[in-house]
């Protein structure tokens, strides 16, 4: 049974589910999770749900496998109908996905309060679809939950301030406490893959800005492939990346890499924690590498997490990343040592508990 006192959590992708899992568990029966189907692949979605104990999906819609505009439009339509039939105290969305924007627009159209988790992040690169999603969601949100004071200041510069903004910290910290396997389990997972702890490179490539451009995808795979002369490279292959590799006949660039299917969250975190270096274009991996104190090279031209550019990670760009990757590997011993004692850029508070407290204060259950 649904209740108008419920907190509806709209999510559609693996990172959203991971980062909102703690909030869903803390809210208990009052959390009603709606899955948009943006991620529907068995590896990207069902393996995630299996790892998120205590999180159950109340209802699902299907928007996967479509263009960005079609995904957003279809999700807004379906979510609006759902929320009209099943009102809620507020709706919670996270990050910058198409599902995030659709959930915010659907709730706003029905005057249901919108809570945006991970508000105020900006890459200042409007060519990124995610950047436009972030800006639009923050514009309609009634409560913007900023991970850091810098994110809150960014919102204030855009005219989003006052009571609408609260600094809550990063929900990923709580997610890692729940998902990260114990050290001995992590070591066993890595050992069973035939890889040495601190002796391999973990790589992920999936963002549209990288993999939907043949020249950029080629440059990224060439640069990562060259690193296999220095250490084994493990590449969990995103389905969309794999599709474009086949489409442009780039299979030869995968030679020398350890290509595997996408991993469930616990398994992937184990490989992150054991890697000598991580190479990725993922936003979530930037934060995970920080919490795990792993050196990260970001295969992007810009990042919405500038707080990590002071030593936590290195931004290499997508045009010709090979030279920067090689230099990062040469600097690895000093870089690793520096990360051992670097203070975290995120607060230590329980972000999920903070967000729920704000929801209860602003929109108390009847």
How would you sum up this structure, described in words?
- With about 375 residues, the protein is of the alpha/beta class.
- The chain is about 45% helix and about 15% strand.
- It is built from 16 helices and 13 strands.
- The chain has helices spanning about 15-25, 40-50, 70-85, 100-110, 130-140, 150-155, 170-180, 185-190, 210, 215-225, 240-245, 265-275, 285-290, 320-330, 330-340, 350-360; strands at about 5-10, 30-35, 55-60, 90-95, 115, 145, 165, 200-205, 235, 260, 275-280, 295-300, 315.
- The longest helix has 18 residues, at about 70-85.
- The mean pLDDT is about 95.
- How do the strands line up in the largest sheet? 3-2-1-4-5-6-7
Just give the CATH class of the largest domain.
Alpha Beta
CATH superfamily of the largest domain: Glycogen Phosphorylase B
Question: What would you call the structural class?
Answer: alpha/beta
pLDDT below 50 for ≥5 consecutive residues: which ranges? none
N→C terminal distance? 16 Å
Strand content: 5-15%
CATH architecture of the largest domain: 3-Layer(aba) Sandwich
Radius of gyration: 20 Å
Largest sheet composition: 7 strands, parallel
What is the tally of helical segments? 16
Mean pLDDT across the residues is 93
Q: Helical percent range?
A: 40-55%
The global form is globular
The arrangement of helices and strands along the chain is: EHEHEHEHEHEHEHHEHHEHEHEHEEHHH
Number of strands: 13
Number of domains: 2
What is the CATH topology assignment of the largest domain? Rossmann fold
């Amino acid at each position: 049974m649904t209740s108008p006192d419920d907190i509806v959590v709209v999510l559609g992708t693996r990172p959203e589910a991971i980062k909102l899992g703690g909030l869903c568990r803390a809210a208990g029966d009052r959390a009603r999770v709606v899955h948009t189907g943006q991620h529907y692949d068995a590896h990207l979605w069902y393996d995630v749900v299996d790892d998120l104990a205590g999180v159950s999906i109340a209802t699902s819609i299907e928007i996967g496998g479509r263009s960005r505009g079609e995904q957003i439009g279809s999700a807004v339509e379906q979510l609006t109908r759902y929320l009209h039939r099943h009102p809620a105290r507020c709706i919670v969305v996270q990050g910058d996905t198409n599902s995030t924007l659709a959930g915010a627009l659907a709730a706003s159209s029905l005057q249901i309060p919108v809570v945006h988790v991970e508000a105020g992040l900006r890459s200042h690169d409007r060519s990124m679809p995610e950047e436009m999603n972030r800006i639009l969601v923050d514009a309609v949100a009634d409560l913007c939950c900023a991970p850091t004071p810098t994110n809150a200041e960014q919102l204030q510069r855009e005219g989003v301030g006052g009571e609408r903004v609260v600094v809550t910290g990063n929900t990923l910290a709580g997610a890692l406490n729940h998902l990260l396997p114990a050290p001995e389990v992590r070591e066993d997972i890595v050992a069973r893959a035939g890889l040495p702890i601190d002796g391999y490179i973990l790589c992920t490539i999936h963002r549209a800005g990288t993999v939907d451009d043949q020249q950029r995808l080629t440059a990224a795979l060439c640069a990562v492939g060259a690193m296999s002369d220095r250490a084994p490279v493990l590449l969990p292959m995103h389905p969309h990346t794999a599709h474009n590799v086949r489409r442009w006949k780039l299979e030869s660039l995968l030679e020398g890499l350890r290509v595997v299917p996408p991993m469930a969250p616990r398994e992937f975190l184990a490989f992150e924690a054991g890697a000598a270096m991580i190479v990725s274009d993922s936003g979530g991996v930037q934060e995970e590498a920080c919490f795990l104190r792993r050196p990260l090279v970001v295969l992007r031209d810009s990042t919405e997490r500038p707080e990590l550019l002071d030593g936590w990670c290195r931004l290499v760009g997508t045009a010709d990343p090979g030279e920067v990757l090689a230099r990062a590997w040469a600097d690895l011993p000093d870089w690793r040592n520096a990360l051992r004692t670097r203070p975290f850029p995120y607060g230590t508070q329980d972000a999920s508990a903070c967000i729920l407290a704000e929801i209860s204060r602003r929109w108390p259950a009847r």
